[in-house]
Design a protein that fits this description.
Blueprint lengths: L1 H42 L15 H11 L10 H17 L10 E3 L2 E3 L9 H22 L3 H32 L4 H8 L16 H14 L11 H4 L9 H26 L10 H8 L1 H27 L7 H31 L1
Antiparallel strand pairs: 1-2
Helix pairs in contact: 1-9, 1-11, 2-9, 3-4, 3-9, 4-5, 5-7, 5-12, 7-9, 7-12, 9-11, 10-11
Length: 357
């Protein structure tokens, strides 16, 4: 009975953690849409949304209600099961990646240490790549099942883009894994926290700047963000792979992009910027003063601040750089980023062997 009680409490703890992380991710993604419209307005010397609620803060709720209450249309010539499955798969794969991200250190709740990570698997990075590779099916299924040639062309372009840039993204991380010797994201964060200046000198961005730059560019392509938003090139393909979608099915496709942005920002902050490490602060000493729970919450705040920075970077680039042509996109991925990632991997291997001989 004691073992059963322990298993039930652990299951309840994980369920609450999963619910909390999913809810938090959805709220952040929802207000990222508001933030993007405000950032765009600022850059274009406009006001942006300001009617729904104070300062327009209820605009995301208004947009969500609009999508829920719009007429839902399923084309008669479409494959109906796959037509529904496409946006659902895009949203599910966007959320699954959050399972292995360490959102903070452990907190003590009623005498029980609760880890702010759903699953600390020792192949966390492989899990992320496995889930990300499934995201292409959401685009491909949605475009093909619509029975629309423009949607199919956009889906094929999107699949080619995602698969191409996954190669460079994976190669850019091999150099990082050579340094860390671990695929666990929590281990990678803890290694970065041992550097000088309160962990700041241990951040991987200082040792893998080229790897981070390649990874960042690939993340933009994986999230279909400008200047790599070719699957949704309205001026070329009417509306892209989700042209036939309406109501909340369209909303799921649009929303999954912002969830992907949020989770990708969390992954970049975890791998290269110390994760929940508070820069210039020794967490062990600070916990003796204010308590371990307060330090864990501050660590989560530090991670969230890094995520917000990357979200702003996504928006900044969108309203600054024009869209590439498709041949330029493929040329950058295959002829520039992959050779650079291979060169970075080779140089990292030589440096590691030189210092360990």
């Amino acid at each position: 009975m004691d073992l059963l009680a322990i298993d039930l409490s652990l299951a309840l703890e994980k369920l609450l953690l999963i619910g909390g992380i999913i809810t938090f991710s959805l709220i952040v993604a929802m207000y990222t849409t508001y933030g993007e419209r405000k950032v765009a307005a600022f850059m274009q010397d406009r006001i942006g949304p300001n009617r729904a609620g104070p300062f327009g803060l209820l605009q995301p709720l208004a947009d969500g209600l609009k999508l829920f209450f719009k007429e839902e249309i399923i084309p008669t010539a479409s494959s109906k099961l796959l037509f529904v499955l496409g946006p659902a798969l895009a949203m599910i794969t966007a959320m699954l990646t959050s399972a292995v991200i360490p959102w903070g250190s452990s907190i003590n709740v009623f005498g029980r240490d609760v880890s702010l990570q759903i699953a600390d698997v020792n192949i966390g990075i492989l899990y992320i790549f496995g889930v990300v590779s499934l995201g292409v099916y959401g685009i491909m299924i949605g475009g093909w099942s619509s029975n629309n040639k423009f949607s199919l062309i956009a889906a094929v372009r999107g699949a080619s883009q995602i698969i191409s840039y996954e190669l460079a993204m994976g190669l850019s991380l091999i150099a990082l894994l050579m340094m860390t010797g671990s695929l666990s994201l929590r281990t990678i964060v803890e290694q970065q926290m041992t550097g000088g200046w309160g962990g700041f000198l241990g951040w991987n961005i200082l040792y893998q700047p080229l790897g981070f730059l390649i990874f960042l560019i690939c993340v933009f392509a994986e999230c279909n963000r400008t200047p790599f938003d070719l699957p949704e090139a309205e001026n070329e393909l009417n509306f892209g792979y989700h042209q036939e979608y309406s109501s909340m099915k369209l909303g799921l496709y649009l929303f999954s992009e912002y969830v992907n942005m949020f989770i990708s920002s969390a992954v970049m902050a975890t791998l290269f910027f110390g994760g929940y490490d508070i820069p210039f602060v020794d967490e062990a000493t600070l916990s003796l003063t204010i308590g371990a729970n307060a330090v864990a919450l501050l660590g989560f705040g530090a991670l969230f601040a890094k995520i917000v920075f990357f979200l702003f970077l996504f928006m900044w680039v969108r309203w600054t750089i024009p869209r590439f042509r498709y041949d330029q996109l493929m040329d950058l991925g295959w002829k520039k980023l992959i050779p650079l990632a291979l060169a970075n991997m080779l140089i990292t291997a030589i440096v590691i062997l030189w210092f360990n001989k």
